[in-house]
TrEMBL record:
<dbReference type="InterPro" id="IPR029025">
    <property type="entry name" value="T3SS_substrate_exporter_C"/>
</dbReference>
<dbReference type="InterPro" id="IPR006135">
    <property type="entry name" value="T3SS_substrate_exporter"/>
</dbReference>
<protein>
    <submittedName>
        <fullName>FhlB domain-containing protein</fullName>
    </submittedName>
</protein>
<dbReference type="GO" id="GO:0005886">
    <property type="term" value="C:plasma membrane"/>
</dbReference>
<dbReference type="GO" id="GO:0009306">
    <property type="term" value="P:protein secretion"/>
</dbReference>
<dbReference type="Pfam" id="PF01312">
    <property type="entry name" value="Bac_export_2"/>
</dbReference>
């Protein structure tokens, strides 16, 4: 997930301020975990790695700010379940569309 910055700082020039990476495997994990957070250059690197590995990226500044406050490796708290579930639903729909298009 990413948040864009409209300021004049370095992040504003590159268009990115913060990024958070989540890991969730429903077969293994009870809830998603925060596996990376960063600002500026580190945020851009998180997104580069996601793109290299074909990991979906979703922009949600509010959620990014909340998740960025969590410790690395921590599970998302119950009060964020709904917001993260919406992101996961977005990703599942995207994956399904990609699969349907590849079958054609």
């Amino acid at each position: 997930m990413a948040e864009r910055d409209s300021g004049d700082g370095e992040a504003g020039k590159k268009g990115l301020d913060k990024a958070v990476a989540l890991k969730y495997n429903p077969a293994v994990d009870d809830v998603p975990k925060v596996i990376a957070t960063g600002q500026g250059h580190l945020a851009r690197r998180i997104l580069e790695v996601a793109k290299e590995k074909d990991i979906p990226i979703h922009e949600d500044p509010t959620l990014v700010n909340l998740l960025a406050k969590l410790d690395l490796g921590s599970e998302i708290p119950p009060e964020l379940y709904r917001m993260v579930a919406e992101v996961l639903a977005f990703i599942y729909r995207l994956d399904r569309r990609v699969a349907e298009n590849s079958e054609k």
